[in-house]
């Protein structure tokens, strides 16, 4: 420790001056008064006494001063010891450096805590203690302080338990208030503070990341109303540049985002008053509730936002935060949904059907009924009640089956039922559609009138079917009469060729009558099973031509239905071709076969309502003469075949290979059955 003697006080200096003057005056009087030899003269004795008294005073004052200085030094040493003990007990490090930056004194409990002694530092520089790399920062700071500049700097040192951080303050020591003779320093460990600082910085970085990544706009205003936070999302929502907003008063920024007609001094004053009041009191009616607002961009674009304003209490007072969300698209969708819902509701109200929504337990959740008289009870009684409370016991079984099927399969279900309601006994059609796993929609339509009209229509149709069957029956009977008349007439004809003509005509009429007979016997009055018809027709022809027992007739036909307009021409064609084959294909009792085939070639498609059929009549007999042209024949039978094929809009192909074959292809439009 550096020790210094106390400086003389002003009182001490004054006393010494007076005593010195006293001695000086005595000496002057001693030499000036009287002769040198007259030593005992009174004047000279007085002067000598004055000198002796002054010297004695100086001596006594010096003794007194020495005693006082001694007691002061004791006190100084005691104070210095107390000061040394004090700075040695604190955790900070106190030290002094000379101009070569060598340690001249080191105090503080940190030295002992670090397992060191002050002697470890004395006479050494930071470069010598810590090495060139670690000591460089101390060397640079010391040089700056020697230049007369107080220096505060931070540094760290690696330790087994981890990195430790320190802060050092260097100040120059002046001599005679001008020359720097050394440095005094205070060092403090700030490891805990730095860890807290790092944690705060990390927290702030996370907060900054969240703020910047947020899709919502975030604004923070300080205690004075200045904007201190304005994230990127707010730039997009407000169309304002962040750099132009930060540091501005909130009321000025808020006014820019309002509609042009609202940007008035009065509005600015209202906003400013409200903001300052909220910041000063920490209370506002706008806090912690959602506010809908419209922001206007510089280009006139309107943006609808939802804003939530909240206070931020700090040690400095109250700040204010705001979260702004762009809900323009959401509001547009909401509007479209409302319009759609209104349209749907209007459509539902226009539908006369009853509608119910039920859950899996059968509880009614919602309903729509334009005509309450169609319900077994008032509409409001259904909500919260079960279907078991309203379904009659007689209808319970099949209705519950439909409900369960709708829930389990998700497929629509339909059932009819009748119910006695205030409007009378009504017939209903119920359609069940699954809405989700736990709800189904029931649409109930009053079909009483439809049922009545349907009953009338069925009765009328049945009546017409009876009449049509009667017509076919009478046509067939009339044709049978014609056949009988021709048979009677043929018996009166002696010419065999003429009788043959009568018989051909009989068979042609019979072929047509057979069609009407099949229609009369069929449940379908519009079509006949042409396969059955071919079998019956060929059996009759084989019976007529019994004189040719060696010739067999074989039929290969699909069970296809043809309309009357197609069946009669086809029947006449088969009649002509089979008759000719039985007559002429196998002369002189030759054995043989006549083959009749009928098949569908093309199936009906969604784009076509026609079907293509093929009719084939073939024999392996003698065939046609080489010079015979079927197209130029004068025989009535083949002429009829050509005419009827044209009537069917078909094509006729004659094949003369190993006998004779007639192949006819034709189309028929699809017949829609009831």
What does this structure look like?
20% of the residues are buried. This protein is 47% helix and 26% strand. Helix 14 runs antiparallel to helix 15 (530-544) and helix 14 runs antiparallel to helix 16 (564-585). It folds into five domains: 10-84; 90-195, Beta-Lactamase; 214-331, Beta-Lactamase (2-Layer Sandwich); 351-446, 2-Layer Sandwich (Beta-Lactamase), CATH 3.30.450.20; 527-674, Heat Shock Protein 90 (2-Layer Sandwich). The chain is an alpha+beta fold and 674 residues long. Mean pLDDT is 79; it is low at 1-6. The protein has helices spanning 10-32, 42-89, 109-113, 126-130, 132-146, 191-213, 232-238, 242-245, 250-256, 265-281, 328-350, 393-409, 448-492, 496-521, 530-544, 564-585, 636-647; strands at residues 93-98, 103-107, 151-159, 162-175, 179-189, 217-221, 227-230, 290-296, 302-314, 317-326, 354-359, 364-368, 413-421, 424-434, 439-446, 527-529, 551-557, 561-563, 592-602, 610-619, 651-655, 660-669.
């Amino acid at each position: 420790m550096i020790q210094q003697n106390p400086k003389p006080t002003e009182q001490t200096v004054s006393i010494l001056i007076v005593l010195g003057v006293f001695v000086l005056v005595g000496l002057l009087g001693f030499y000036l008064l009287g002769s040198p030899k007259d030593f005992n003269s009174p004047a000279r004795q007085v002067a000598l006494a004055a000198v002796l008294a002054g010297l004695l005073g100086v001596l006594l004052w010096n003794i007194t001063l020495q005693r006082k200085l001694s007691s002061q030094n004791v006190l100084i040493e005691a104070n210095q010891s107390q000061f040394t003990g004090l700075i040695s007990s604190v955790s900070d490090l106190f030290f002094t450096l000379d101009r070569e930056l060598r340690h001249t004194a080191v105090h503080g409990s940190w030295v002992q805590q670090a397992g060191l002694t002050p002697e470890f530092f004395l006479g050494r520089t930071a470069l010598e203690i810590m090495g060139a790399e670690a000591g460089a920062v101390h060397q640079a700071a010391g040089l700056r302080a020697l230049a007369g500049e107080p220096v505060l700097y931070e540094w760290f040192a690696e330790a087994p338990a981890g990195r430790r951080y320190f802060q050092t303050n260097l100040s120059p020591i002046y001599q005679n208030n001008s020359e720097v003779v050394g440095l005094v320093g205070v060092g403090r460990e700030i490891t805990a503070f730095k860890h807290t600082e790092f944690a705060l910085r990390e927290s702030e970085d996370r907060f900054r990341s969240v703020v910047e990544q947020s899709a919502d706009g975030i604004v923070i205003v300080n205690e004075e109303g200045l904007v201190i936070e304005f994230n990127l999302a707010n730039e997009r929502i407000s169309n304002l540049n962040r750099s132009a907003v930060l540091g501005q008063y909130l009321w000025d920024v808020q006014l820019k985002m309002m509609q042009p007609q609202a940007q008035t001094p009065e509005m600015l004053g209202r906003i400013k008053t409200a903001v300052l009041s909220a910041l000063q009191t920490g209370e506002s009616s706008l806090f912690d509730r959602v506010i809908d607002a419209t922001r206007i961009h510089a280009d006139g674009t309107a943006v609808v936002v939802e804003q939530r304003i909240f206070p931020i209490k700090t040690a400095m007072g109250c700040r204010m935060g705001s979260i702004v969300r762009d809900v323009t698209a959401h509001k547009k969708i909401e509007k479209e949904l409302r319009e759609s819902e209104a349209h749907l509701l209007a459509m539902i109200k226009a539908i006369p059907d009853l509608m119910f929504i039920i859950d899996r337990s059968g509880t009614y959740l919602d309903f729509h009924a334009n005509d309450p008289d169609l319900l077994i009870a008032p509409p409001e009684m259904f909500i919260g009640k079960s279907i078991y409370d309203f379904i009659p016991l007689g209808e319970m079984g099949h209705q519950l089956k439909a409900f369960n099927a709708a829930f389990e399969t998700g497929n629509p279900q339909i059932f009819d039922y009748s119910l006695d309601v205030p409007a009378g006994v009504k017939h209903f059609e119920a359609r069940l559609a699954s809405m989700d796993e736990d709800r189904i929609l029931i649409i109930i339509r009053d079909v009483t009138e439809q049922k009545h009209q349907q009953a009338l229509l069925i009765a009328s149709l049945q009546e017409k079917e009876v009449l049509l069957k009667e017509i076919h029956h009478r046509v067939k009977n009339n044709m049978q009469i014609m056949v009988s008349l021709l048979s009677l007439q043929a018996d009166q004809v002696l010419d065999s060729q003429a009788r043959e003509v009568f018989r051909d005509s009989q068979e042609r009429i019979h072929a047509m009558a057979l069609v009407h007979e099949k229609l009369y016997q069929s449940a379908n009055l519009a079509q006949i099973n042409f396969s059955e018809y071919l079998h019956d027709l060929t059996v009759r022809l084989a019976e007529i031509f019994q004189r040719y027992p060696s010739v067999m007739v074989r039929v290969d036909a699909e069970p296809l239905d043809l309309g009357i307009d197609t069946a009669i021409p086809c029947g006449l064609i088969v009649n002509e071709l089979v008759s000719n084959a039985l007559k002429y294909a196998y002369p002189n009792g030759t054995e043989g076969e006549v083959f009749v085939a009928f098949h569908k070639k093309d199936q009906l498609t969604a784009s076509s309502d026609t079907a293509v059929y093929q009719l084939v009549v073939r024999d392996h007999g003698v065939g046609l003469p080489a010079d015979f042209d079927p197209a130029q024949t004068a025989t009535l039978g083949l002429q009829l075949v050509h005419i009827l094929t044209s009537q069917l809009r078909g094509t006729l192909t004659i094949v003369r290979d190993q006998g004779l074959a007639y192949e006819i292809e034709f189309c028929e439009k699809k017949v829609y059955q009831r």
